[in-house]
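Pipeline run #58 for the internal structure catalog. This entry was flagged by the ingest filter as a single-chain record with no existing model, so it goes straight to prediction. Upstream metadata was stripped on purpose; only the residue string is passed forward. Reviewer on rotation: M.T. Logging verbosity set to normal.
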Amino acid sequence: MHVPDGFLDAPTSLATAAAAAAAIGIALRGARRELDDRIAPLAGLVATFVFATQMLNFPVAGGTSGHLMGGALAAILVGPYTGLLCLTVVLVVQSLLFADGGITALGTNVVLMGIVTVVVGWVGFRAAQLVLPKRLSMVAPAAALGAAASVLASAATFVVLYSVGGVIAIPFDTLLTAMVSVHTVIGLGEAAITFLVVASIVSVRPDLVHGARRVLVVRELETRLVAS
């Protein structure tokens, strides 16, 4: 999903750069409400984990491969604002030091792998929480659903951007079919990794998982009601 230099025309790249800059500015303000003595160290670990796992690819089909995007995972663990900042740091380091994604396409990659995956992953996660039972055991399945949705949303967003500013003409239907089919499989891998990581942390320290806080409040309230 890392978009290289020259894939999109200059106006589209500039537009995504502006969108990324605006989103980062909002995230910097919003992260102040999410970060505390417990979450701040975890944010660094999340960025490191996402960076490391993005370097590992798994085969999909037809010679293609996929890797963790990590937007949904980051949002659920440390909050959507902090999660976006974590993904931005990862993408900047990858672009500048490892040539993984173009420098002129950095804004595009932040939009696709940062903004879209964080927002859709978090919204999908919260939507699943509204439907699923309010239990800690349901946090990981909700996270997996959000993660799968985030990958498909990122792929669809890329198709839209390419249809607007792609330098080589590719039929919209052809590109959409190719991207969605491949990223459906990648989404399953993303969901599995997200499920395992969130479930592991929830099992030992649910208080460290931002997305589990509402469930913990509900459980604490129910405990108090029963005790009284």
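catalog note: Residues 10-227 form a domain with the Arp2/3 complex 21 kDa subunit ARPC3 fold (CATH 1.10.1760.20).
catalog note: The helical segments are 10-34, 39-54, 71-78, 80-98, 106-131, 139-165, 172-204, 213-227.
status: ready for reviewer M.T.
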